[in-house]
């Protein structure tokens, strides 16, 4: 069994790798999104809404892993651009969010382009990893996600991945 110092050092190393991967992946997406004329936070919001017919603001902030003010700022701009709809829910504090046909078209174009031939670095790099190693990585990432963020988040990721495969 490893010591607390070793576990702490491994947690730091894990965080460092995940942070660097996240930064590299976001920068790669930002580069590609320029041709769509959309920011990464707006794309992320549309991406999430693409996989759910409608959701609440609380659900969106949970899946996007952001705070309510950041989400609301993105939603306001996307609503003004005709890419999302914001409707009142059962009470005045609840907002129901949905993607419009124009917003859906942006995400569908992105998916269609990258399913055919992607210039996202991660897509080509994953080809270099043996299938069993990638499966183990995904298993570990799923475990960490479930333990740290929650089962609902992990299930949303799996659901949206499966929708991409259909």
Structure characteristics:
166 residues; mainly alpha; 3 strands; three-stranded antiparallel β-sheet; 7% strand
What fraction strand? 5-15%
Strand order of the largest sheet: 1-3-2
Report Rg. 18 Å
**What shape does the CA trace take?**
globular
How much helix is in the residues?
A: over 70%
Protein model, in words:
With 166 residues, this protein is mostly helical. Helix content is 70%, strand content 7%. It has a 3-stranded antiparallel sheet. The longest helix has 30 residues, at 4-33. The chain starts with a helix and ends with a helix.
What is this structure's SSE topology?
Elements: H1 4-33, H2 40-50, E1 55-56, H3 57-64, H4 68-80, E2 84-88, E3 95-99, H5 101-116, H6 121-126, H7 131-148, H8 151-165
Antiparallel strand pairs: 1-3, 2-3
Helix pairs in contact: 2-4, 2-5, 7-8
Brief synopsis:
This protein is mainly α.
